[in-house]
Specification:
It contains eleven helices and nine strands. The protein has 217 residues and is of the alpha/beta class. The protein is globular and about 50 Å long. The two termini are 30 Å apart.
């Protein structure tokens, strides 16, 4: 089953877990975010990837420039461990992690969560790649991905018990759009997936295809 099919199945069964009035708010705000055109303004193929240094889940730091010194980087932004769509996407990336490394690339995931939350996520899903904390979504802002939750959606997420105030270190309203980039050793984005829809994620085979095209060039 493709990642898209798994995500669609999860989306189609939302009504069994989420009340209709909550779904109405979520769907309306998703449409508004899509209509804002933010995805079209985010960085894309051909753009320079902004450099960053972020804390890891285990107390270290990782810099993009250091990673690129060893080869291309697959950089993915996700909302947090509270998001079931993110968890599906990260597990799918773990399944192709060995294929990514076989292309000489490194995989890095970034979210606005505190390192403790990233560590819990890493251990729960057995992730073998770096999971970094972008507190305040400063890096996501540089990539054009950060957006602020509207009041009603933020309140709804609070009612779900996501506790974004805590897990995002006081930046409860700011989240990144789902996005994945393939960045070459020179720091140029070679391939990009950006979507305002939290249910849409980069298909693993598309990422591997982008890496193969980069290697061939």
């Amino acid at each position: 089953m493709t990642l898209d099919a798994e995500l669609r199945a999860l989306f189609d069964n939302r009504h069994t877990r989420i009340p209709a009035e909550a779904l109405e708010i979520m769907d309306r705000r998703s449409r508004e975010l899509a209509e804002s055109g933010q995805a079209d303004r985010a960085l894309t193929a051909g753009d320079r990837a902004p450099a960053f240094r972020l804390p890891t889940a285990t107390g270290g730091t990782v810099a993009l420039t250091d990673l690129l010194a060893d080869g291309p980087v697959v950089l993915t932004f996700y909302r947090g461990a509270w998001c079931p769509y993110c968890n599906l996407a990260l597990r799918a990336l773990q399944h192709i992690h060995s294929d990514i490394t076989a292309h000489g690339a490194q995989l890095v995931a970034v979210s606005p969560q505190i390192p403790d939350e990233s560590l819990s996520l890493t251990e729960k899903h057995g992730l073998a790649f770096h999971v970094l904390s972008d507190l305040g979504s400063d890096v996501a802002k540089q990539y054009g991905l950060a957006f602020d939750l509207p009041d009603d959606l933020a309140t709804l997420y609070d009612s779900f018990g996501f506790d974004l105030q805590r897990v995002n270190a006081g930046h409860a309203r700011t989240l990144p759009l789902p996005a994945t980039y393939v960045i070459d050793r020179a720091g140029t984005i070679r391939w990009a997936f950006v979507n305002t829809d939290y249910e849409k994620r980069a298909e693993p085979q598309d990422i591997l295809g982008a890496l193969s095209r980069y290697a061939a060039s």
